[in-house]
Amino acid sequence: MKYYNAVKKGLYTTTEVAKTYYTHQTQSMNGKYIYIPCDNSVSGFEPSEKEIKHYYKNNHQKFTNSPHRKISYFVFNLIASTEDKKNILQEMKELISDQTVFNKRLNQEEVEPGFMTTDNLKNFISEHGDNRYEVKIFSQEEFTKIEATQDVIDGIIYPYISDEICTMGRIINQDLDSVSVVYLEREIYASDQTLNEIYSQVFEFIDKNKTITDVEKVSKDINSKPRTVTLEKMDESVPGLGVSRQIVRWAFNSETNLNETNFFDLQDQYVVAFVSQISEEEIKPLSEVYDEIVIDLRKDNIAKKFSNDVAQSQSKNFNDLAAEFSVKIKNVNQLKMNSDMFGDEGYNPGVVGAFFATQPEQISSPFIGENGVFVFYKDTAGEINYPLEFSRYQALVERTNHAMIDLSLVDLLKENKNIIDNRFNFY
User: Fold this and answer.
1) Rounded to whole angstroms, how far apart are CA atoms 317 and 285?
2) Is the pLDDT at 345 greater than 60, yes or no?
3) What is the dihedral of CA 63, 68, 74, 77, to 10 degrees?
4) How far from 154 is each of 2, 97, 115, 171, 180, CA to CA, in Å?
């Protein structure tokens, strides 16, 4: 806090700065403009390799890069086999009828009531099911549809599987209007045998593919395609896998090698992943931004052509100029210097500044914006009624500057010093 306050005290706001702030907040300009978009393509222009490399070299600030990793991963879902589902259905069927069990304490056989006969359905469901006791009431029409799709015998809806849940029901009340049913449900899990088989398949896969360079061949061999995602150091989750900080940390571990497979045991799936790309450079490589540069150079070429055409135009007034280029004249009303939006063209802070800088009641020189060429005609600015003193606005500017220090001081220091961000190691 001492350091922050020392820096803040060094930012004194003069009266002239406060006056400029007041001007930008209150002065508004009116005028009109024409806009020639760069999407009116100029045929035949293709930038040369030399131009592309020169643009890349001189515009590194456009291509800053956040360190990231691309990982590819195969998913092996831990789902129940057909045999597992048959076994669960059989277990549920065996719960319907009474069962004879041997009581070792009394040294005699006893009859244990089943789902059909028990007098305490709530306890029975609590002991044998994965759901809670609940009475569901159906109209006779609704229950007729249930009978059409499920086996209903002696008041029991026999076990069936739907959405990975094995379900059976018991009718506890039925009248002319409705039917009351209590269900017993069990989630279907893969058996230990099935899990062991999947586990063996996964490690057989890893053993054959300790490193993966030909993804298409591997995908064809196991009839499954991997998913490729991009991760940054402080990510908490992996797209497609949910929260999985362990995978993010592994991807950025200095000992993790490119294309080398690794195994992860998640809640309901095994994952085999490998890092398919490492990007540590502060600037994106030319190969990644090549197409972007080509588009920028094409736009720049088009804008310069239009700008030259406008500069050489013989049109005598603004209306003639608009007609010459087949564009409409658009109005700008109550535009302030502190605005970043210009007319109908949206976010264009540079264009706002260019508009304010033009001489009033004159056709401006062409201004090349991000996506096109602008020509302005600004009306005469009105008088500004300045306050007698600016102390209030000095304090306002200082508060704004102090807030910016709180937000940006660390970033400014990092630009001037080689600070290593080690939060990743503890997160």
Assistant:
1) 47
2) yes
3) -120
4) 82, 11, 12, 9, 14
